[in-house]
Amino acid sequence: MKTYYTSEIAAKLGFSSTALFNSELVKRGIQYEIKDGFALTGDYDFMNYVEFEQIPLEDESVIYVRKWTNEGRDFLLDLLGY
Fold this sequence. Notes:
Elements: E1 3-4, H1 6-12, H2 18-27, E2 31-34, E3 37-40, E4 50-56, E5 62-69, H3 70-79
Antiparallel strand pairs: 1-5, 2-3, 4-5
């Protein structure tokens, strides 16, 4: 299944930065800010809109990158009038 970085969706929708796009999603109640990024609000948390990619680092720690599923991308495009 193809997944999309937030930056890809933001660019498609014409946002000049991912930060502005994330702010718009916060304003609309889709997500909220957490320590190291964003999390979906309860209304959207269990709707198969995002997946997390694990990226191992050289120091053996792992970071998690949120990516939007096709379903999540379509939801955002529809919500924001694309």
